[in-house]
Amino acid sequence: MPRLNIYENISINHSFNQQTVSWEILKIHGVYIPGSISFNNIAIYLVRSGTIAKTLSVSFGLYSLNGSTLSLANSASQSNSGGASSIWLTLGTSTTQDISPGNWYLGIVGATTGANSFLMVGNVSNAPMSGGGYAGRFVRGIYSVSTNGLPSSIATSDMNIEGTYGIGSNLIHSYILISA
Questions:
Q1: Between 124 and which of 17, 57, 67, 136 could a Cys-Cys bridge form, CB atoms 3.0 to 4.6 Å apart?
Q2: Residue 147 contacts residue 158 (beta carbons within 8 Å)
Q3: pLDDT above 50: residue 6
Q4: Mind giving me the DSSP string for the chain?
């Protein structure tokens, strides 16, 4: 297996857009990582709008799936303050971890203070589906409990498919870079 220096969860060939994000909603989506990578840094692209200074706190979680339970393997958190700008928010993990090739699940949750107008850049071409739980294999979803943290363990039955919350919550899957 090849060793990766960088991994992006959404191919640059996808159409990107920015969308207002509903915070305190944990979103998780599955990815396949094709090679080993040292999990040290995560970068998430965000846009702050308006003239009022605001603070954003973001938590990122790397989850594994065993049966019907998502387990937190590693995490990172970061806060950032300021006015209108586009930023790459860089988060350092608490512990360096070697990610093996295979299926992993990326979770992101955030909270804001000040005017609640942060935009997240990502893939917004996912069509909304009807709300409720998953009947088949878990691929992506929204945690059914409002939170500003990362649970260490989540039953996939506690994840709702897109369509449960407003459109801003459903279609955005953040553009995330993982680097060694």
A1: 17
A2: no
A3: yes
A4: -PBPSEEESS-TTS-EEEEE--TT--EEEEEEE-SBEEEEEEEEEEEE-SSS-EEEEEEEEEEEEETTEEEEEEEEEEEEEESSEEEEEEEEEEEEEEEPSEEEEEEEEEEEESS--EEEEEE--PPP--SSB-SSS--EEEESS--SS--SEEEGGGEEPTTSS-HHHHS-EE-EEEE-
CB 174 within 8 A of CB 118: no
pLDDT tens across 39-68, in order? 888 888 777 666 667 777 888 899 999 999
Residue 79 CA neighbour count, 13 Å, CB half: 8
Write the pLDDT tens digit of every residue in 67-80.
999 999 999 988 88
Q: Which domains does the chain have, with CATH numbers?
A: 6-179 (2.60.120)
Please tell me the predicted confidence (pLDDT) of residue 122: 63
Residue type, 67: G
138-146: average pLDDT: 77
Q: Which of 33, 72, 78 is nearest to 179 (CA)?
A: 33
- How many residues are there in the chain? 180
